[in-house]
Design brief:
- The C terminus is likely disordered.
- The protein is of the alpha+beta class.
- The protein has two domains: 59 residues, no CATH class; 62 residues.
- The N and C termini lie far apart (45 Å).
- A four-stranded antiparallel β-sheet has the order 1-2-4-3, with no helix packed on it.
- Helix content is 39%, strand content 14%.
Length: 139
């Protein structure tokens, strides 16, 4: 299992004020994540951890949240210059069969463009580019 998500999960479980039911569900989801991780199903392990985080934060685990939690954003630059283009790539970490009807809708904001669109669960990436406005006071 990836170290960062499991450490974050255990930190949240140790620090959040959880009810007995939340703690029980969080423990069950953690055990399930460990089981599928041992079987080499890393995406499913991450899905169980994300679901557990939702339980601990008292947020309903809806198909939309399941899908959104599977999409980490990756920037094409470590440092973004004011006014420069930035590409954000979203690639699902795990399949979300419950979210088959959930779709991403591109923004209609000026400067935003969608380069490639993928359907949920296809494993393809979605990337967008946007001109960032200069920061106020920047020369």
């Amino acid at each position: 299992m990836v170290l960062r998500p499991s450490v974050a999960y255990n930190t949240e479980k140790a620090t959040l004020p959880l009810t007995g039911d939340q703690r029980s569900q969080a423990d069950d989801l953690s055990r399930q994540a460990q089981q599928v991780n041992r079987a080499g199903q890393y995406g499913d392990a991450l899905r169980f951890l994300c679901q557990g985080l939702a339980v601990m934060r008292n947020v309903p685990w809806t198909p939309a949240l399941e899908f959104a939690s599977s999409l980490p954003g990756k920037l094409d630059h470590a440092i973004i210059e004011p006014g420069a283009h930035v590409t954000v790539t979203l690639t699902p970490l795990y399949k979300s069969p419950r979210a088959a009807d959930v779709r991403l809708i591109p923004s209609n904001r000026p400067g935003a463009r969608l380069f490639r669109q993928a359907t949920q669960g296809s494993g393809a990436s979605i990337a967008g580019r946007r001109n960032l406005p200069p920061r106020s006071g920047a020369s």
